[in-house]
From TrEMBL:
InterPro entries: AAA+_ATPase (IPR003593), AAA_lid_NorR (IPR058031), CheY-like_superfamily (IPR011006), Homeodomain-like_sf (IPR009057), HTH_Fis (IPR002197), P-loop_NTPase (IPR027417), Sig_transdc_resp-reg_receiver (IPR001789), Sigma_54_int (IPR002078)
TM helices/strands, residue ranges: none
Origin superkingdom: Bacteria
Stretches assigned to the Response regulatory domain: 5-119
Record PTM 4-aspartylphosphate, positions in chain: 54
High-level lineage: Bacteria, Pseudomonadati, Myxococcota, Myxococcia, Myxococcales
Domain Sigma-54 factor interaction: 144-374
Name of the protein: Acetoacetate metabolism regulatory protein AtoC
Keyword list, A-Z: ATP-binding, DNA-binding, Nucleotide-binding, Phosphoprotein, Transcription, Transcription regulation
Organism: Anaeromyxobacter paludicola
Length: 459
């Protein structure tokens, strides 16, 4: 990463000229000004990578300029130039956040060396951030299980939107994994090292929502015995996840809208507002568009939240993910009982899992598998280990294989035979390409590999 745009601030015209000519010859884009005030105007007008500033200048000295740069442009590299007798000020500047300093008089090569060191630091910092992002991406996105096209589209949106500050509205039925996606958006963003604060708007009593979100000052109401920082302020610099946003009382909807527009919060009972920098991700299982039509949710707030909308599909719309999810949860909960290992699902148990409609979505599936692991007495989860509703649910294959001799009327056997036949047909059609076959079957790649092994298919 080359730091090519340099702003010089020095009240000595000869020094400005010397550095400008030398650094321009070295390939830098250079602009020189005479004091800190002019430097701030220049920084407001265009982007720079480095500020090279004298310590002692009229109107606004280098220390004052450093303070403003850190407040307004914290990403800039700030290098101090100090003349004889001002070393203490240079050290003070370093303590205040300057990257380095050079002492006057100096050779131009000394300034060039400091710039090169700053570039190397920037390169290493960016490389570190990239590696952390890749590690977080692998970790966080691996937790979102499912290879269906519906989930692949969700993951594409997450990757695209995560680095931005744009507000995101996650919609989907209860149990589809909205908080998991919200955490992925945070972990894949530049805010990953800063707080992720989750707030369930439907779980806080209506009379306490404002105080919980925005905080309060001592004496604001009867029980306010001390100042309290709100959850919005707790998320400063990071991500605020507002779950069940559709349950937010209408009076608070106005205040949330004001915060989103102005980036400031005012605690209950306070007369001052404070700036807060957060990325907001909201989620709801309600149809907010319908709630707007019915006057239950503010239209302006809805559009402010729904800048980017991500819909999480219910499990019934991605049946190809059920096997993979079931095995994922089995692996998770089987570790809790190492003394009695659970290796997998008996065929009839897996059939019951596939046949259920899962109205509670992924969360319901997780709880069902956890229960089965606890009750399982052998190496395989049996049908009787599953919740009663799954065992009693009607199930039937989409089509029966043709009768061969004596007619086979077993639903279980017919279902398994149909599944095996479809897998073999998909593999034949794709010339043995398992990735393409998984797409045709609407299965994840890992689920297909498991089934190939389960049916003993030589592909």
């Amino acid at each position: 990463m080359a730091l090519r745009d340099v702003l010089i601030a020095d009240d000595e015209e000869s020094m400005r000229h010397l550095l400008s000519v030398f650094l321009t010859d070295q390939g830098y884009q250079v602009r020189a000004v005479a004091n800190g005030e002019e430097a701030l105007k220049e920084l407001a007008a265009r982007d720079y990578d480095v500020v090279l500033s004298d310590v002692r200048m009229p109107r606004m000295d280098g220390l004052a300029l450093l303070g403003e740069v850190q407040r307004l442009h914290p990403e800039l590299t700030f290098i101090v130039m100090s003349a004889y007798g001002s070393h203490d000020a240079a050290i003070q500047a370093m303590k205040a956040g300057a990257y380095d300093y050079v002492s006057k008089p100096f050779r131009p090569d000394e300034v060039l060396l400091v710039l090169k060191k700053a570039e190397e630091r920037e390169r290493l910092w960016r490389e570190n951030r990239r590696l952390r992002s890749e590690l977080a991406q692998g970790y966080r996105l691996d937790r979102i299980v499912g290879g269906s096209e519906a989930m692949a589209e969700v993951l594409r949106q997450v990757r695209k939107v995560a680095p931005l500050k744009t507000t995101v509205l996650l919609t989907g039925e209860s149990g589809t994994g909205k908080e998991l996606v919200a955490r992925a958006l945070h972990e894949l963003s530049p805010r990953a090292s800063l707080p992720f604060v989750a707030v369930n708007c439907g779980a806080i009593p209506a009379e306490l929502v404002e105080s919980e979100l925005f905080g309060h000052v001592k004496g604001a109401f009867t029980d306010a015995s001390r100042n309290k920082k709100g959850l919005v302020a707790e998320a400063d610099g990071g991500t605020l996840f507002l779950d069940e946003i559709g349950e937010l009382p209408q009076g608070l909807q106005v205040k949330l809208l004001r915060f989103l527009q102005e980036g400031e919060v005012r605690r209950v009972g306070d007369v001052r507002s404070e700036p807060v920098d957060v990325r907001v991700v909201a989620a709801t299982a309600r149809d907010l568009g319908r709630a707007v039509e019915q006057g239950q949710f503010r239209e302006d707030l809805f559009y402010r939240l729904n800048v980017i909308g991500v819909r999480l599909p219910p499990l019934r719309e991605r049946p190809g993910d059920i096997d993979e999810l079931a095995r994922h949860f089995l692996a998770r909960y089987a570790r809790l009982r190492p003394e009695a290992p659970v290796a997998g699902f008996a065929p009839e148990a897996l059939e019951a899992i596939r046949a259920w409609r899962w109205p509670g979505n992924v969360r319901e599936l997780e709880h069902a598998v956890e229960r089965a692991v606890v009750l399982c007495e052998g190496g395989l989860i049996r049908e009787e280990d599953l919740p009663e509703r799954l065992r009693e649910a009607p199930r039937s294959p989409a089509a029966l294989p043709p009768a061969d001799g004596a007619e086979e009327l077993s639903v279980k056997k017919a279902t398994l035979a149909l599944e095996e036949r479809l897998i073999r047909r998909a593999l034949e059609r794709t010339g043995g390409n398992r990735t393409r076959a998984a797409e045709l079957l609407d299965l994840s790649y890992r689920a297909l590999l498991y089934k190939i092994k389960e049916y003993g298919i030589d592909a």
